Amino acid sequence: MAPDQSVNIDLVSATGATIRQLARVGTMTTGTGGLASGYHQANLAIVSKEYAHEFMVFCHRNPKPCPLLDVTEVGGTEFKYAAPGSDVLSDLPAYCIYRNGELVEETGDITSHWRPDHVAFLLRCSFSADAVLEEAQVEFALTAAPSGRLGAYLTNIRCEPSGRFHGHMIVSARPVRPGHEAKAASVTASYPLAHGAPIHVGDPLAIGIQDILKPEWGSDVKIEGDYVPVFWACGVTPQQVAMESRIPEMITHKAGHMFVTDLRLV
Amino acid sequence: MAPDQSVNIDLVSATGATIRQLARVGTMTTGTGGLASGYHQANLAIVSKEYAHEFMVFCHRNPKPCPLLDVTEVGGTEFKYAAPGSDVLSDLPAYCIYRNGELVEETGDITSHWRPDHVAFLLRCSFSADAVLEEAQVEFALTAAPSGRLGAYLTNIRCEPSGRFHGHMIVSARPVRPGHEAKAASVTASYPLAHGAPIHVGDPLAIGIQDILKPEWGSDVKIEGDYVPVFWACGVTPQQVAMESRIPEMITHKAGHMFVTDLRLV
Fold first, then answer.
1. Tens of pLDDT along A205-263?
2. How many CB pairs below 8 A link A and B?
3. Which of A123, A142, B14, B70 could form a disulfide with B82 if both were Cys (CB 3.0 to 4.6 A apart)?
4. Which of residues 33-72 of A touch B (CB under 8 A)?
5. Could you tell me the CA-to-CA distances from A44 to A236, B82, B147, B244 in Å, in that order?
6. Considering the entire predicted model, what is its pTM?
């Protein structure tokens, strides 16, 4: 009988480098929520050099939805600060390619799409806030989603434009138990590596969200028990902006399929 | 006898807008240290669009010497966030023009140099830390300089490069009374709108400074009594970088002649 040559990797306790390596070889193609629990995850946005400066200024002007974490050199494929040795072309489980504001392709590897005039940006991700909310014992209404996170929603809040980039802010939501809103707001506000304090607490309609059970990004949700929705700026915003602005080309992570960094949550 | 039609403006208690207006009409051509005491002052750097992205990435990678405060649109002359209504072409008392790494001109107005492909950056300034150090009752050795600030010094610390931008960090120094170093470090560390915590405390030679009495930027200084030199990253760094990198063109403020913003020190 042949010896057992399989190996079992616990993805929750894995390092960021392990997750990236599994994505690189094509073994890891699923969402990264809850995985590599000690490490920061990040949103990806790639544009051409022609658009890179305007996009970086957009991020500077909209630090809540687009908190900039790292930038490659023009044509560079490594995030030297957030993940030395990384390869942006294959280290994510799934990518989305937008052209002229339309999602035209989802793929697990963008090597064939990469050009020497591309610049890649990493934006901090609200996934990183999960551990902070848990640590602070913030209580959530029951949902099927991990850490009480729901989907991501289109709001009527306009981002500050920059050059050719303009569009509405996307938010993620958590259904917080009544009385826990202030704690949820204060612990995330003091957390510099994510999206900071909430954008809004309470009535979804006040920021243009018609139905909290039907997020624009993600599956329909069910929520049990009393709750107050709390909304944080979301790193899917650049994808919304690429669509509204009809940017000729933007390559991003697929929602929920993040770049896992080497940066520890501490 | 003609009535007295002169007006006396106290520049220390003036607003940022007043200082800018006086600079704009050519009345104010001197250094801004200690003026408009309730307002943030900022360093200026202007490059062409061709260099703007690489410079912005340089700032992101070197947040202590180059803490980005505001950016104009390409060809835009107004800092909409830091000073609505401002005009970057004339609102500073004095400018320096660098070409291919050489200082070629000092001028009070850059209107004739401006092109539609120029982008202007504001970087936070350590002048803003003066009030914080004073508030915390940090004591300094006696110098002729305001707030115990000395000149700016070239160090042997290499900045993180970005594209064509590379060079050594410039620091400013204050001669702090022995025993007050920790307080000076901690109060500036928690001060987000300036250069943050010190780069170095103590022996100047450790960061390549030969003689603290002879700053590369500013006049020779005299210091009376016991002191420990404390060094903060300085916003003159982009000028040093423009010189070392031989950037075809960079326009900056003249050292000490800052852009005074509308942002209050709080």
1. 999 999 999 999 888 888 888 999 999 998 899 999 999 999 999 999 998 899 999 99
2. 34
3. B70
4. 49, 52-54, 56-57, 60-61, 68, 71
5. 9, 29, 44, 33
6. 0.82
